[in-house]
Amino acid sequence: MNAKVLLVVALLTGCTAANAAVEWNSLSPAQQTVLLPMQKNWASLPSARQDKLALGAARWAAMTPQQRTEAQQRLQFWKTLTPEQQAATLAKRNEYRKMSPAQRLQLQKTQQSYDLLPSSEQDALRKQFEQLQQQVPQSALSPASGLPSIGSAGLPPVTATPINVLPVH
């Protein structure tokens, strides 16, 4: 396994960590295979880090080859983003996670409708969104991204393409 796989495993874990350390021998053979480069330093890692890596390794081992390829592609795309873009993406993800199931469903339906439009109509909507963005008062913008907050009063439904970088848990 290489460092890329370990980084993907680390990024895929979003669970809270337990306080007890994870013993190397308690890992499944599949987890040990994924985490083999970490074996030498395993005991010195903080228990929270061990727990996250163990959970991520289990998740990685359970993925199909196609899912692994997609995860690696998302990681490669993530690496191309500037720190500001990464922060904005994480802020949007956190905002999405705070939405109610009904709000998430509405956003997904809006995205699906947008995806079905011809590219010329998508371009027109994107330009319209950019113009609206310039007209919105600064108080209605998300601080991290500079984009209108989801659910901001007085704004039309979301019509721009959200950045789909990481899976939402």
Short description:
The protein is an all-alpha fold.
Uncertain ranges:
14-18, 151-169
Write the H/E string, N to C. Answer: HHHHHHH
Helix content: 55-70%
Overall SS class: mainly alpha
Largest beta-sheet characterization: none
First and last CA, distance = 25 Å
Global mean pLDDT: 79
Beta-strand segment tally: 0
Write down the Rg: 20 Å
The percentage of residues in β strands lies in: under 5%
From the spread of the alpha carbons, the general shape counts as elongated
> Please, how many helices?
7
Can you characterise this structure?
Mean pLDDT is 79; it is low at 14-18 and 151-169. The protein has seven helices and no strands. With 169 residues, the protein is mostly helical.
How are the elements arranged and paired?
Elements: H1 3-12, H2 29-35, H3 47-62, H4 65-80, H5 83-98, H6 101-116, H7 119-135
Helix pairs in contact: 1-3, 2-3
Question: What key attributes describe this structure?
Answer:
169 residues; mainly alpha; 58% helix; 0% strand; elongated
